[in-house]
Amino acid sequence: MSAATTAAAPGRAPAPPRRPRRRGPRPARVVLHVALTLVAAAFLLPVAWAVLTSLRPYEETARRGYVSVPDTLTLDNYRTALQDGQLLPFFLNTVVIVVPALVVTLALASMAAFVLSRFSFRLNLPLLLLFTAGNLLPPQVIITPLVSIFRDVPLPDVLSSSGALFDSYWGVGLVHVGFQVGFCVFVLSSYMRTLPVELTEAARVDGAGVWRQYASVVLPLCRAPLAALATLQFTWMYNDFFWALVLMVTGDKRPITSALDNLRAGFFTDNNLVAAGAVLIALPTVVVFVVLQKQLVGGLTVGATKG
């Protein structure tokens, strides 16, 4: 093709460039979005219904039913739940149990993961498998021996009013640490294996000991997975009801998940009031997730692009 044929004819405007044809969404992507929307709705609908129920007076739902358009929305159920349910003392019990257990779990897991990922010895792999297998152990299997052991372990009266590990904050926190360390070791050791070995080798050449390599070199690089684990562990420990019910007999010591029982009467249950209490109890986990959402997503996806 000659240049004469490609050049625009004299006195005629050049043709505008062709725009790329816009392709519609692919059927597979449409199906994926519809499926994700349905799954999200399935999770959010019960939450939205609980919030709506908590804002409706009991008399209205008893007269018109729970599946009806509300006439009145009020915060009276929340005021009653805070006063009658005595949620604040139970929330403080939860803080006393969860915060130390969370700190100890992450500290022990990061130390164990550092040793398993940075040092090669004969029991390296069996120890990692032992930590991982611990996550698969059903808690119900060890209830009887655990209660017997906790009854026989004495504690000073300063630490426990019962004089033993049983029926104390320390016992419930210790169980949380024991059950959650394995999962955290598995996650952290997998992440630490992706860090360059040259980092710790250079620190060792500069005279850094094992603790300095752990605290000053490796641990600062693990902020993202530690933040993700902290969010998950806080949610799991906060929502625990099983171990508090098994290892505590004093009702005033139990965590906030057991406070909903205070909102039930002997022969009558105000479901609107219970819904308000459930929403109040769930708020801290929502706040933690919103505050640490960026770190959680970053921690869950870190290392995903590494080969």
Could you explain how this protein is built, in words?
The protein has 307 residues and is mainly α. Helices cover 64% and strands 0% of the residues. The protein is built from 14 helices and no strands. The radius of gyration is 28 Å and the shape is flat. The two termini are 48 Å apart. The N terminus is likely disordered.
Question: How is this fold's topology laid out?
Answer:
Elements: H1 3-6, H2 27-54, H3 58-64, H4 76-84, H5 87-118, H6 124-134, H7 143-152, H8 169-192, H9 197-205, H10 210-218, H11 223-238, H12 242-247, H13 271-291, H14 293-301
Helix pairs in contact: 2-13, 4-13, 5-8, 5-11, 6-8, 8-11, 9-10, 11-14
Q: Which descriptors apply to this entry?
A:
mainly alpha; 14 helices; 307 residues; disordered N terminus
Structural class: mainly alpha
Shape, per Cα inertia axes: flat
| Gyration radius over CA | 28 Å
| Proportion of residues in helical segments | 55-70%
Please give the count of helices.
14
Main sheet characteristics: none
Strand content: under 5%
Mean pLDDT: 84
Q: Spans of 5+ residues with little confidence (pLDDT < 50)?
A: 1-7
Can you count the beta strands?
A: 0
- H-E order: HHHHHHHHHHHHHH
User: How far apart are the first and last residues' alpha carbons, in Å?
Assistant: 48 Å
In short, what is this structure?
The chain is mainly alpha-helical and 307 residues long. The chain has 14 helices and no strands. The model is unreliable at 1-7 (pLDDT under 50).
